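Holo prediction — iron/sulfur cluster.
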Amino acid sequence: MSVLTDAITSALGTDIQFDKRQYPSSVICCTVPVEKFAEAAWVLKKKAFALLAAEWASDETPFGRGFCVFACYRWGKEYLIVRSELPSDNPQFPSLTRRYIPAYRFERQIQSLMGITPAGHPDARPWIKFEDWPAGAWPLRKSFDASKPLPRVAGEYEWIKAEGEGVYEIPVGPVHAGIIEPGHFRFQAVGEDIINLEERLGYVHKGIEKKFEALSWQDGARLAGRVSGDTTVAHAIAYCMALETMTDCNVPERANWLRAIFLERERIANHLGDIGAICNDAAFAFMLYQMSRLREIVLRTNHKLFGHRFMMDKVIPGGAAVDIDSEGKKEILSELDSISKDFEKLVIIYDESPSLEDRVRDTGILRPELARELCVVGIAARASGLNLDCRIFNPFPPYDQYDLIELGVPVLITGDVHARTWVRIQEVRESIRIIRYMLENLPDGEITSSFTPPSPDMSGFAAVEGWRGEIIYWLQAGPKGEINRCMVRDPSSVNWLGLEQAIPGNIVPDFPLCNKSFNQSYSGHDL
Amino acid sequence: MIRILKQIFRTGIVTEPLPTEIISEVEEVGAKLEEAVRKRFRGSLTIRQVDAGSCNGCELEIHAINNPIYNCERFGVHFTASPRFADMLLVTGPVTHNMEIALRRTYNATPPPKIVVAVGDCGCNGGIFGESYASLGGIDKVIPVNAVIHGCPPTPVALLQGILKAIE
Ligand code: SF4
């Protein structure tokens, strides 16, 4: 038995039913009566110190069942999904927001897109759904016709207000000054000091989760690779893994290793870009140019060897779409040598520039206690003292060979911009090292295996450590074996709350710097 | 400081050493671009980039044309923060329902004559996201488009070529 299941069974006893349709078998799913949904959360938090990883709902009317609401908890290596069934008319469930802060947005999203009410939720404003959508438009419901454009209705979003002498507001966005994605930030400030930041996201909502339901399992991988373009490999791996767990598809070892090489290369490319951009936002443009040059070299090699600069569509259900030969191996090894040599020189410069240090240290602090409460993941978590990394806690081959790979995960506790930068620096070094290891020990064999679609009413789960952090996919096969629901949880879905909490107390000009150090995906969040 | 200078000098100007197959491409399109920008925009083409709903892949490549290797500024192409200064809007993504109004406003804030270039397969026709309740499809569904750049995402060279084609 595991810590999470022990905790929940000892508290709820016979109210729990274990679900046999959930794959992989290591991820346990149990059904509790809906009135116990919040109690389960409380028990898991108090007794097992679990973190909330995701919360979502699915429309199961095609099975003749009504709706279902799910909460996924994580503790160490364990994931536990708690599920409750709801009737199809007037569906409601007890809100978890007072126990778990990240539920705050998950539940607003469930309410906005699925039309299920989280009873007792403190904030009834829609999320992702805008005020000018018609009231009954719940796109994730099966009865919703997604092919028609939405009419606009009148409505206004209510912002949180701050009042008092000298308080003023700065609205920013959705179209920002740089070449970045759209979102709206509203600051309340006194002088230069920010007293509150409110985010408003949803501008790039493309209806991705709904779109999945109209695609074949194969095409789903292409869409997963476009949830957030900078994380295309990690999203595709997570989708494919969730899918493969439901079928008896055995991904060849070589394909798994290739996927891991792509994943680490994606990590290096993005971290290089981020380190440069963070320094640039502290007016240290030198680093931006140097780092973007190194990043470009990585992308060039990708293009040459794998046919795409970001390796889009190179991870497919059942394996990988490109192989690597001995020439390619040599090329990557020599590329890594030259990058790592230049990178180390730049790290020394980063470390020894007092003017830069002055900006990045003690700026945008996300305290460890708060990071834990907010259940942040990935870089933001590791910079704030949380030792989380799916490559260690939920590994797929080759990461499961701990003793051979000896993956080191940097954890810092200061939670400031510097910590988030330093985590990236350490991870670049580590990724370079493990790519070398993987290239030298790459197993022989096939790179794809045949893939049969899953049977009806199965669900699959996967968590993969992308460069931002843990990505979760939960897939459900419908009555005809098609995609009934595809839940995507990008790290940004939780980490945006972290940014919002890290900002108050900073000065307005430091916001871009703090924002860059989190560098969340808008597209991955808005879906 | 010494280290910074050393690294700068040691790195030198990296804008040049491209792999031979790309070098000729970038140089070629660059020379033409420079010429066109000089003739039609008095040496300075100012672009405002708008993300109308992309997956952010296209943004990464637009960033890349600013990196020291492609360095589009040397051809007189630069990016501005305000649509009011822009000669060209470079618009990515399928236009989402939630971005439609902001895109229209940005378009209206740009002084005429203005050139609109739709970037990426999504910008051209909605790409994989197509048309749905949330996505209106290509940029031309919302504002008039003068030129398109295909690709998912288009490579930096394709972007430079597309910008050139749009102003020629
Ligand atoms: S064209 Fe491709 S990279 Fe660009 S926004 Fe669309 S899916 Fe993303």
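READOUT: The radius of gyration of chain A is 23 Å.
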